[in-house]
Amino acid sequence: MRKSSAISVFVILSLLFTQAQSNCFDDSIRTYVQFLEQLHQSPVEYIAGKFDTHDIVVVGEVHQKREYCELISQVIVTGKINFFASEFIKHSNTEIINQIVSAKEFDRAKAIDILRDYTWPIWGFEEYLNIIHAVWEVNSTRENQQDKIKIIALDSEWSQYDNMCGQKKSEQELFKQNVDREENMVNAVKEQYADGTKILVHIGFAHALYKLKGRFASELYSKYDRKVFTVCLHQQLEGDMSKMTLSKDIETVMARNDGISIGFDVAGSPFAKLKDASCYYFRVPQQESLKDIAMGYVFIKPYSQLRTVTWILDFVNESNFEKAKCVAMKMRFLKTEPKTVGECNSAMALYFTGE
Q1: What is the DSSP string of 87-143?
Q2: Are strands 262-265 and 296-299 parallel, antiparallel or unpaired?
Q3: Helix H segments across 214-261?
Q4: Residue 272 gets which letter from DSSP?
Q5: pLDDT tens-digit profile of 56-96?
Q6: 107-122 pLDDT, tens per residue?
Q7: CA–CA distance, 101 with 111 (Å, rounded to integer)
Q8: Cα-Cα-Cα-Cα dihedral sign, residues 336, 122, 131, 180
Q9: CB contact set of 191 (below 8 Å; sequence gap of 6+)
Q10: How many Å is the Cα radius of gyration of the chain?
């Protein structure tokens, strides 16, 4: 009995301490938990269900997390979309990638070549490749070419290798590069969208901000209004990490809800008013709280428990070795400079095991 009482006191004190240290909570955690207890949609059901009321669903990820890539693949195979728009394929490869996902057999080698030609020369991850395969998988069940899912390849011709390993660019040049990139991605979607078309967008969360003028989602939202819906996949948001508590605060609530994976609308929920002065996103006037940076929110597990993606073991070859090596070294993915293609692949595989 004493042991049980001691544990109860510890839990209560821990919760009180967590709440006292929070930048966000100004009411009882129980309010948030009661809201979550009324919800029953899994992340896949939640995102797929948004196509019942919206045409363009923009899912903002934190990069290179296995669970989030798997989530996108699972939404694709629900079969509720006409287009899949990906930040992780260059627009110039649109025709080739659609040939791959419409073919009778899935050509893994050609799909890997698409990733090799991406703006980041080290985007060699099985889970991003599996997303392409998921599109092919759905299309393989559809005989009519018009019924097949088409891929909208979003990214432009900029190069992270040039940015990191080439001649140093000015701030003005990099700013213009980013502006042009957002415009190109927006135009790629506009070219394909017609009223009632269902488009799933997989993109980094920074592009999914729907009230920040110039950002991908904002430009689509300003044109198509409520036909657009944005979803934030739980992550450590950008800010002063020594002071920011927002992500941990959300995880505290989720732990009280037994850590159940869930998706929910932010507006009208207790989460809508959450904000953190240490988070960079809330230092913009039009983004006062969580409801202003995300319309929907998906939680699968705490950020620290998300697994990294898996390296494609033969991704680096002679064609991309020098570029991949340089960017990987600059990103500190590699501790020592690899001398061969094999060394580079082995070191990258080891890094992405988390060791």
Answers
A1: EEEEGGGHHHHHHHHHSSS--HHHHHHHHHTSSSTT--BHHHHHHHHHHHHHHTT--
A2: antiparallel
A3: 216-224, 246-256
A4: G
A5: 999 999 999 999 999 999 999 998 999 999 999 999 999 99
A6: 999 999 999 999 999 9
A7: 9
A8: positive
A9: none
A10: 21
Asked whether 298 and 234 are in contact (CB, 8 A), the reply is yes
Three-state secondary-structure class, residue 334: coil
Q: Cβ-count burial of 232 within 10 angstroms (0-12 exposed, 13-18 middle, 19+ buried)?
A: buried
How do the domains of the chain map onto residue ranges?
28-351
- Round to whole Å and give the CA distance between 48 and 305: 24
Q: CA angle, corner 281, sides to 38 and 161, nearest 5?
A: 115
DSSP bridge partners of 296: 231, 265
Q: Are 90 and 119 spatial neighbours (Cβ–Cβ below 8 Å)? A: yes
Taking CA 121 as the corner, what is the angle to CA 115 and CA 127, rounded to the nearest 5 degrees?
40
> Any idea what DSSP says for residue 279?
B
Rounded Cα distance between 1 and 165, Å, is 64
Q: Which fold has domain 28-351?
A: Rossmann fold (3.40.50)
Is the distance from CB of 283 to CB of 248 less than 8 angstroms? no
- What does residue 183 show for φ and ψ, rounded to 5 degrees? -60, -40
Q: At which residue do the structure tokens 């949609």 appear?
A: 41
Residue linked to tokens 């490749």: 129
- Please check whether residue 233 is in contact with residue 59, taking contact to mean a CB–CB distance below 8 angstroms: yes
Give one word for 66, left, alpha or beta, with left for phi > 0 and alpha for psi -120 to 50: alpha
CB of 78 closer than 8 Å to CB of 141: no
- Nearest-10 crossing angle of helices 94-102, 108-116: 160
* Beta bridge mates, 308: 65
Is the confidence at residue 355, as pLDDT, over 80?
Answer: no
DSSP 8-state class, residue 202:
E
Beta carbons of 252 and 274 less than 8 angstroms apart: no
Residues linked to residue 204 through DSSP beta bridges, in sequence order: 61
Burial class (CB in 10 A: 0-12, 13-18, 19+), 173: exposed
- pLDDT per position as a tens digit, 1-42: 444 444 444 444 444 444 446 766 666 899 999 999 999 999
